[in-house]
Specification:
The protein is mainly α and 138 residues long. The chain contains four helices and no strands. It has a domain of 86 residues: Hemerythrin-like (Four Helix Bundle (Hemerythrin (Met), subunit A)), CATH 1.20.120.
Amino acid sequence: MALFTWNAQYRLGLEPMDAEHMQLFALADELHAALAQGASRQLVRKRLSGLIDHARAHFAHEEEWMRRHQYPGLNAHRIHHEGLISKALDFQRDLVAERAVLSAGTLQFLKDWLTLHLASEDRSAADYLISARAGSAG
């Protein structure tokens, strides 16, 4: 059963952001599936690395859109992104050094962070960006 399932409630109305968010969900679910199927540590590390790489690229894109449209919440948003990446990298280092294993709690944290961040932080930013885009079109 999928833990990370994209649905319409997560849509923000900005196609590039929505597409990247959908990919984050897909990569997180691939990680979950690898764990659920008892995949090798090597494959789990590969899935986690892919998720982190995509998250970094996505966060950079989001922050660039926000900077370009002078989103007033950019610095706070960037801090949220940096916090997640920092936690993910700490966990990745521990996983590679075999000091940790991915657990259901870790995946639940990731799911909660992703869905809550989308519902609040990204929703606010998207509303601002859509409004800014509409204002510049007129």
